[in-house]
Amino acid sequence: MQRPHHQALPTLPESGARARSPAPSTPLCGRPNKSTSANHPDLFISSSSSLSPTVFSASPVRSLDRNAVSAIWVISGFNSGKVREGTMGFFGTVLGFFGFGCGISFGLVVGYYLFIYFQPADVKDPEIRPIVEYDLTALEKIFPEIPLWVKNPDFDRIDWLNKFLEYMWPYLDKAICKTAKEIAKPIIAENTAKYKIDSVDFETLTLGCLPPTLQGMKVYTTDEKELIMEPLLKWAGNPNVTVVVKAFGLKATAQVLDLQVFAIPRITLKPLVPNFPCFAKILVSLMEKPHVDFGLKLLGADVMSIPGLYRFVQETIKKQVASMYLWPKTLEVPIMDPTKALKKPVGILEVTVVQAMKLKKKDFLGKSDPYVKLTLADDNLPAKKTSVKRSNLNPEWNEEFKFVIKDPESQVLELSVYDWEQVGKHEKMGLNVIPLKDLTPDETKTLTLDLLKNLDTNDPQNDKLRGQLVVEVTYKPFKEGDVSNDITDEEGEVEKAPEGTPAGGGLLVAIIHEAQDLEGKHHTNPYVQILFRGEMKKTKCIKKNRDPRWDEEFQFVCEEPPTNDKMHVEVVSRPPSIGIHSKEILGYVVISLADVVNNKRINEKYHLIDSKNGCVQVELQWRTS
Prior knowledge:
The chain has helices at 34-39, 66-117, 136-142, 148-151, 159-194, 309-325, 338-341, 594-599, and strands at residues 43-44, 57-58, 199-206, 213-220, 227-236, 240-247, 250-263, 265-272, 279-286, 291-298, 301-302, 331-334, 347-357, 370-376, 384-385, 396-405, 412-419, 427-435, 444-450, 468-477, 506-516, 526-532, 535-538, 549-558, 566-573, 584-592, 601-607, 615-623. By secondary structure, it is an alpha+beta fold. The strands form 6 sheets. Strands 3, 4, 5, 6, 7, 8, 9, 10, 11 and 12 form a 10-stranded antiparallel sheet that branches. Strand 10 (291-298) and strand 11 (301-302) form a beta hairpin.
């Protein structure tokens, strides 16, 4: 049989040409068969497991059989493939891990960007229907949104207060934001230096245009002197608070917006006192954990949209607020010192302004026109004044004044000497003080006080001579059982209010006794007009009299005590029926009524403002049923 034709295979170099031998069969494995070794003793192929193509040798090989050479090439290709496969496997593993990491990172960044900035904008308005059209299942879903005054009869409806908040919110917004900035300013200044921050500023601070809503209020009645309220507060507002932080040459912005707060605070006003605002402290506590939700943007991205962070922040806020203010823990806001608010009069201070000596000239074309102003510390009543002494540097007054004393250990009497000016501000000539704790009870003291520039003992300007003021002072404390005619209502001294007077109010009585040293520019026909709560009453007119006496009584019915009100008393001169001059204002005084309500009766002489020496005597009584 004829052998098939094969392509010529390369042969090893040999010394001479030889006839090609018949090709024995050679297996494809690394172990040669016996016939091959026997027929070709000069060719040896190793049977090691490495199957390296370099382990054969040919010493003077005359000629290689075609099958032997084919076996050599097959074995060489097999070993080379294994090497390439190992090298490519290592690099493929490294590239696989690298691609996986880059893919995950890129996917997270792109997904977060799409989640934040590609939110659906087609938000539909809710459908509003009458409540009678809802079935039982729908009512159960919306039941938590029904106001408490509907579900709970103990809660009162306070729509009037919501309407008040709606109208006042633009002004409350500005006032609250201004107060918040003032409170935060020292805190920011302290922490910026501590953490080496360049600056922290409010770029935008507004509470928005949506006011909070009170969906009901519960008021508790107790036997204590306190008022307890529990309003249900819901605020879904649109505030915009943007804070800019600069540090280490970098700038970062944080923005809080879309705030929602649902809470039931308990507000306690205690103790109730007879001085405005009628309570000394405000106590605030939360009856349950509040719901707080808001958006927070850092560098323009909404951080609260990160999965898991929103719930973590909400729970953290609830825990922190509950740990501080959840009942029975309270936030206490002091309004006034309750010990001072509840203090009652303990005595009377009688002061006689005798004279002043060696006062300095203040007027450019003449001497000074001095008068003395007396003010009692921790007293809300208007200051008292002496008459004005024209062109006199050593004036004599000998005028007496009385003050109601509530705390002689802390109160002081301040005496200031002024130069009266017809036009412009009155110039202060000097002042000094008398601590009441330095006075011996029931003993009259004559004091000569050096006038000072101010009350700073280290100020060198106080060494300059400004004149002296001579006064006589007597402190008369009340003894047990004693009653002062000027501040208490003895049996039969202050009458009771007539029948029909409001139970929570009373009758305010004003008695205009007389006026002295009145002086008009063109005429002096004085009468007095009283203005109280928009109601005006007048005395009769007394013609051509500088020291008129009226002794007229006027009554005002009040539904509540006028603790925070004032009475305007004005002395007016009526012009003659025939003449070209109009009426003239001879002077006025504004009287605070808080002391009248507390002490039932006051009878004082008041020096008239815008008058040289004029004064008016007014008696005020507060009568209750």
